[in-house]
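We close this part of the discussion by returning to an individual protein. The sequence in question and its structure tokens are set out directly beneath this paragraph:
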Amino acid sequence: MQTIDLGLQGKARIWQDEPFVFPGNYRPIYYPIVEERIETTLNDTKTGILSQTEVMIEILAPLGARFLYGCLGAMFMPNNSGKLVLTVCISTESEPQLDNSLASSLDVVRNGIIEEYASSIFEGAKLKLQENGISNIFGSGEVYFRWGAFGEIGSSIAFFHDLAYAVIQLMVNDKGQSDNIKSPVKNFLEQSLSTANNN
């Protein structure tokens, strides 16, 4: 896990190809699935250059008297189906509370991805995949959004849209180079904060 200081007391934590475990916890961020939403984003595609990879990002961003919070993780599994498929695994809204999140002192943070955020996760992921060359890097396979946490106060539909975009972006970045990780997170956060300030 890598922790990034985003300035103004904002923080991000990023996991890449490692257990998705918050500090001080022993169990991965995992929850019972009550529903799976599936969308095919690309047909008749060939094998891409991306091997199996897992990414999770957690962000706390102060915004004056408010703050933004969210955590979202996904796995990409290449296959020979000829399709690029997105799957979002839905939890209930009453999953266990997490005590070691970045927002634990500010919010009630619960494990899971609730139904309210599913459509925005699809939209954020597809927005990134539509950028020039990105879907070809993935190629045939499935992006499986299976990990997440949300705050009762700090999370929103718009923020989970942006988190999904950032997860896809981090999947195609070179791993292990902090500059390559920090730059897209900061760019995503600047855009997300700008949107939030205009609302």
Notes: The chain has one domain: 2-184. The mean pLDDT is 85. Residues 166 and 187 are 9 Å apart (CA to CA).
